[in-house]
Structures are given as structure tokens and as C-alpha cells.
Amino acid sequence: xxxxxxxxxxxxxxxxxxxxxxxxxxxxxxxxxxxxxxxxxxxxxxxxxxxxxxxxxxxxxxxxxxxxxxxxxxxxxxxxxxxxxxxxxxxxxxxxxxxxxxxxxxxxxxxxxxxxxxxxxxxxxxxxxxxxxxxxxxxxxxxxxxxxxxxxxxxxxxxxxxxxxxxxxxxxxxxxxxxxxxxxxxxxxxxxxxxx
Length: 196
Description:
By secondary structure, this protein is mainly α. It folds into 2 domains: 39-114, no CATH class; 122-194, no CATH class. The chain is built from 11 helices and 4 strands. The strands form 2 sheets. It has a two-stranded parallel ribbon. Helix 5 runs antiparallel to helix 6 (81-88).
């Protein structure tokens, strides 16, 4: 679907998503809020990876088996996302793994942070959108929930929750950089989407 939209084939939406979703995607496109081109990530990586150096890359999440050297060489040559990723793909390093490594680097996700995220799990539940039925489900689940439920992008108290929220904010900021009309600090202003 994304590839079709990237080529400007918005009519293909009717074949792949429900009409309400297609309408929302068209509205987002008209407001400059659709991310269809990932080449900006390639340009960021072209700048950032050589700046970090091999030693800096080694501290990033899941960086092992010498992939840092491969990424360093590829980032110096490639300016687009596809060129960067494709120049690293092999039987040893599949496309998904290469993309994850590059995103970890762009987000500044350190190895120990990633391990902690995996080991400790989420410190909170964040509601992004809800329907009346969803509200009822959330209300009924309250007695059995072990995690706090948040609706705004401010974490509950605690260092762990603040670290996870910081990763969320960095991810949102990176996404904004790729939009035709980026906005600053959208994550901190985001409100829950209330459905019908």
C-alpha cells in the first residue's frame, strides 16, 4: 500500500483499506502529515553514522558481529534509504535487521536501553484512540490492570517510565522530520482520538 501511495496511486486505497481509513489518509495527505518517502532517513544516516564512528556504533542497540563496519562503509556512500539498506543486506544481515539497526542509530537507542526495554517491559499503557466500547473495556479492566493508563505524553513518575517516554518522543520527532509539513513537539501535544 505504501509503495502505491508513494507513486501517487491514491486510488489503490479503495482496494486495500476500509473507506473511513482511506478518508483519514487522504485528509492527512492534504495536511502534509503522511510519511511516504524514507530517503530523509538515508541522508540523516549518511551524516550521523560516520560522525559516531565504529566505537560509537558499537554502543548502539544489538550492534554485533561486525555490522558496525558494514554500516559505516555503506553510510559514507549511500544518500538514500534504499541504497543504504540494500548495500548492507546479505544472507547474514536480512533487510529487517539492517533497517532496525539503522533506526536504533538514528534514535540514539543504546544497547543497555534496548536490553532494559526488552527485559522490563512497558511501564505504562498509553491510549492513542478509543471508541465508546473501548472506553467501557478500559473501565472494566481497571481492577485487573497492573500498569498505569496514560492518555497524554507525560509519563507517570519513575525513571523507567521517563526513559521509555523519551524514546517515544525521539521516535515521533524523527517521524516529523520526514513529513512535508513537520511540526515541533507534536508528541507532547497529542490528544487521544475519540471514535464513534
